[in-house]
Amino acid sequence: MTTDTTSAPNFIRNQIRDEIEAGRTGKIVTRFPPEPNGFLHIGHAKSICLNFGLAEQFGGDCHLRFDDTNPAKEEQAYIDAIKEDVSWLGFEWAGPVRFASDYFDQLYAWAQHLIREGKAYVDDLSPDEIREYRGTLTEPGRPSPYRERSVEENLELLERMRAGEVAEGEKVLRAKIDMASPNINLRDPILYRVRHAHHHQTGDKWKIYPSYDFTHGQSDALEGITHSICTLEFEDHRPLYEWFLENLPVPATPRQIEFARLNLNYTLTSKRKLKLLVDEGIVDGWDDPRLPTISGMRRRGYTPASIRKFCEMIGVTRADGGLVDIAMLYHAIRADLEDNAPRAMAVLKPLKVVLTNVPEGHEEVYEVPGHPARDDLGVRRIPFTRELYIDQDDFMEEPPKKFFRLAPGKEVRLRNSYVIRCDEVIKDAAGEISELRCSVDFDTLGKNPEGRKVKGVIHWVSAAHGVPMEVRLYDNLFTVEQPDRDRDADFLDHLNPESLVVCQAIGEPSLAEVDPESRFQFERVGYFCADRHACRDGKLVFNRTVGLKDSWAKIQKKG
């Protein structure tokens, strides 16, 4: 699988191409370095496509490395899910899966090296005192009273920290850089914290764990990464990234390049907030189809190709482009499924229709293409019988002028079948419509009725052969474009109460046995995916991926 990255702006691709042409770069090596403290989301998908895509385009390698420096928040389940997501998107990492914890011994040795060079020290200040001493954006920091400890004392204290003889929060190891630097990240950043936590890879070997800043660049250097690509929030960390590389005997000097992160409207991509939604039971796990997690999008019916296409469409820039319209994402999946999803008919809100001039036991079977433009998708067999179901929305007792569906005394065509006329409306004791009595014009199969025009076409399902199924209609989880924009407000206040609507529907017989994650266009309704969990449990459940209307395509045409 290759990814076409040439169709949208990508300044990093252009830089690398220039470097290769000028002979400044040989084989490129990138990496995707997730923290295993949650599931990946659509923002990570952009980074995955960028890092793996560049490696593919320029004949290089891309590593998958877990930055596992905080065992208190990490789980094996997250590691497994991340590997599955990367593979599902169609990418292969070079060599084995790597972990920052693979380098803990080397990182500790380098921490000792910095101490011996007089560039690191053990600090006894509390976390609150460290923040106070660090200063502000307008005021320089103050040196810790422990900053000038001797090399011997610092080495001894660090070893005690490692041995578990120091309580959490009692001491930290800090780099000795510049407490007056205008860049707060250079004001003696923390290298190690005491954490008496079991680690999913190293067990109980370590009682101290390195910081992300100390781990990341050195892991890149150990792996021979040439381009360390990250989002713009790490731009202010780049001088620190480079300071470590300059002051340690590293085997390589990778270059950090920042790009603008993805901000999608009506969506949250904060792992902390996504975890809250999961932990509070507001959504059905990390793969809830309303979440922007890759596993949630997969369960909803997105394809790897559609997610890669979306990432190509938005491009890679340094400028913060603001919010990306979620309609672009819907356009990407809709375009994919329009070409590749087989068709089927399903009635989401069934209304019974009795065809009074069709004999009891009568049955016709139509052979209908599985896809109007794809012979390889075969044909479906659709039975036509005396009793049918149509959708409640396709009938109105008192229709407006331009309502071209079914109404009393009006005609409509059943898709792939005859024209029918509504002759009688049956209501229950509560006055609700329970059944329609209609008649068939048997001279209209495959042709128009003589002397009159019938504009409407509706979908339907045989009552005798229809397949009962649950259909879940998913919509945006939030009602506002930026649910966490106002820091003083609770983002949960913006939850969409209609983000999930469940229908007890009826589908055509071809839907009776489908594989998990099978995708279909339900004609006149939208695109749907067989739920990967429910289908394995023997239930027939379809999740709505996206509707048929493409607002982004209309926006593009206007532009």
Write the layout of secondary structure elements.
Elements: H1 11-21, E1 29-32, H2 42-57, E2 61-66, H3 76-88, E3 98-99, H4 104-116, E4 120-123, H5 127-134, H6 151-162, E5 172-175, E6 190-194, E7 208-210, H7 212-222, E8 227-231, H8 238-247, E9 255-259, H9 271-279, H10 294-300, H11 304-314, H12 326-340, E10 343-344, E11 346-347, E12 350-355, E13 363-369, E14 379-385, E15 387-391, E16 411-414, E17 419-427, E18 433-441, E19 457-458, E20 461-462, E21 467-474, E22 500-507, E23 519-522, E24 526-530, H13 532-536, E25 541-547, H14 551-558
Subcellular location: Cytoplasm
Catalytic activity: tRNA(Gln) + L-glutamine + ATP = L-glutaminyl-tRNA(Gln) + AMP + diphosphate
Domain Glutamyl/glutaminyl-tRNA synthetase class Ib catalytic: 27-321
User: What is the structural class?
Assistant: alpha/beta
- Based on CA atoms alone, the radius of gyration comes out at 30 Å
List the uncertain runs.
Answer: 1-6
How many strands? 25
Number of helical elements: 14
Helix content: 25-40%
Q: Major sheet: size, sense and barrel closure?
A: 7 strands, mixed
Termini, distance in Å?
A: 32 Å
Order the strands across the largest sheet as they lie in space. Answer: 10-23-24-25-21-22-11
Q: What would the principal axes of the Cα set say about the shape?
A: elongated
EC number: 6.1.1.18
Family: Belongs to the class-I aminoacyl-tRNA synthetase family.
Subunit structure: Monomer.
Protein name: Glutamine--tRNA ligase
